[in-house]
Design brief:
Layout: E1 7-12, H1 16-31, E2 35-36, E3 45-50, H2 55-66, E4 77-81, H3 82-88, H4 91-95, E5 101-103, H5 111-119, E6 125-126, E7 147-151, E8 153-154, H6 165-168, E9 173-174, H7 177-189, E10 194-198, E11 206-207, E12 210-211, H8 212-219, E13 227-231, H9 240-248, E14 255-257, H10 265-270, H11 277-290, E15 295-302, H12 309-322, E16 326-331, H13 349-373, E17 378-386, E18 392-396, E19 402-406, E20 414-422, E21 426-430, H14 432-436
Parallel strand pairs: 1-2, 1-3, 3-4, 4-5, 5-6, 7-10, 10-13, 14-15, 15-16, 19-21
Antiparallel strand pairs: 8-9, 11-12, 17-18, 17-20, 18-19, 20-21
Helix pairs in contact: 8-9, 12-13
The protein binds S-adenosyl-L-homocysteine, iron/sulfur cluster and FE3-S4 cluster.
Length: 437
Amino acid sequence: MTSAPKTFRVKSFGCQMNVYDGERMAELLGANGMSAAGEGEDADLVVLNTCHIREKAAEKAYSDVGRLRREDGSKPLIALAGCVAQAEGAEAQKRSPMIDVIVGPQAYHRLPEMVAQAVRGGRPVDTDMPAISKFDAFPKRKRANPSSFLTIQEGCDKFCTYCVVPYTRGAEVSRPWGDIVAEAYELVETGAREVVLLGQNVNAWSEDGRGFADLIRELAQIDGLERIRYTTSHPADMTDALIAAHAEVGKLMPYLHLPVQSGSNRILKAMNRSHTVETYLATLAKMREARPDIALSGDFIVGFPGETEEDFTATLNLVDEVGYASAYSFKYSPRPGTPAATMEDQIAPEVMDERLQRLHERINTHQTAFNRATVGKETEVLIERKGRYPGQMIGRTPWLQSVHVETDAVPGDIVSVSLVSAGPNSLAGVIPAKAAA
Ligand code: SAH
Ligand code: SF4
Ligand code: F3S
C-alpha cells in the first residue's frame, strides 16, 4: 500500500496519436484531483506512453522505467501505457518489476481507477480493446494549443508485413462524426486556430457513406478555425474527393504526408503495400494538379529483407522524382510476430546504416531546395511558441515549415511574414514592415 499520488507526469513517445492520448490522459488525471508535476520536480505517478514501432523505442521505454528509481531507492508509481504496453501486456511487469500499471491504448478511460488499485497494492493490467470508447471518458479541455491534435480514426487493417500497428492498435475504427465536430468546436473555443486530424490511416475515416473529405468540409465551416491538416494517410485511401477538397477548401493546408516506404515495386509487394511506384506517382500528380503548391512528404524504410542495391537505387530515384519538401526514413526493424521478421535475406546492419545515410543526404538536398525556393515569398505564419531569444517567436507556414521571426505576435496569431533565409529544417522570416525599413 502506497499513498495516493498527488502529482503526475505523462511522457509520450512515438507518433502524434500518442501525443494526443498523452494530453488526454493528463487532463483525465487532472480531473481526478491530481496536478501535473513542475519541470524538474519529482512526480508521484509517472505514465510512460510508449511506442513499439521500432526496436529502439521499446528498449528506450524499459531503460526509462529503470531510470525512475530515485537516489534514496524509492520510486514513483509507474504506469506503462501505449503500444509497448499493448504488445507486451503482463510480460512487461516480468521484464521490469518496477511497473505498477499496464494500460493499453484503448483502455485509458480506466487509468484513474487502475492507479487507485495500484495504490491498494494491486498490479492491474488492461489491454482489452472494448467497444466503449475511451474518448467518451476524457474531460473537456481547458486550454488548447494554437495547433491541436484531434484523433478521428484509430487502428489499421492494412497489415504491411513489417508493421506492429494492426496488432497494437487493433482494427480500423472511425470516431463518430458528431463527436469529432464537437471536439473541434471545443478546441477552437479554448484557443486552437489549427487542428491536425490524426489516425493511423486518417484518410480511411468513414461513417454511413460519408468520407474523410466530407468531414474536412464540415470542419472548415467552423468560425475561428483557420487551418486544417491531417496525418497519416495511406496511398490506397487517397480518394478523388479528398484531392478535390485540396483544390476547393482554403483552410485545408497545402501539405500531404503520404508514406511510400520504397521505390521498388518488388519490395513494395513483399511489404504488402497495396500501391506500386506508378500508382503512387499518379496520385501525387493528381494532387499537384489540384493544388500546385502542395508540399509533399513521405516515409521510407531502408533495408527491408531482400532489398538489393538496385531496389535501394530505385528508392533514391523516387525521392528525386517527387522532390519531397520533407521526408522521414527509418532502418528496417524486425518486429516479433510480423511476417517480415522471419523472411530470408535480412539485411546486415552496416548495409542499412550506409543506405540510410545516403537516403538522408538525398532527402536533405530536396528539403533544403524546397525551403530555399520559398525564400522571398511573403506568407502567413501561425505563431505557435516562443523562440530561444527574447522577442523571437516560432511558427509554421502553410507548407508546415518552421519559421523563426522577431515579432510582438503571441501564440495563436496568424501573421504575414517575409521569408528571408532557409536551412534544411527551418527558415528565418521578418515582419514585412521591418523588411521595408
Ligand atoms: N500508417 C502509416 C504509418 C504508421 S508507422 C502508413 O502506413 O504510412 C510510421 C512509419 O514507421 C511507417 O510509415 C514506416 O516508415 C515506419 N515503420 C513502421 N514499421 C517499421 C519497422 N518495422 N521498421 C522500420 N520502420 C517502420
Ligand atoms: Fe503499419 Fe501499414 Fe498500417 Fe501503416 S498501413 S500502420 S505501415 S500496417
Ligand atoms: Fe508507435 Fe504505436 Fe504510434 S507503435 S508509432 S505509438 S501507433
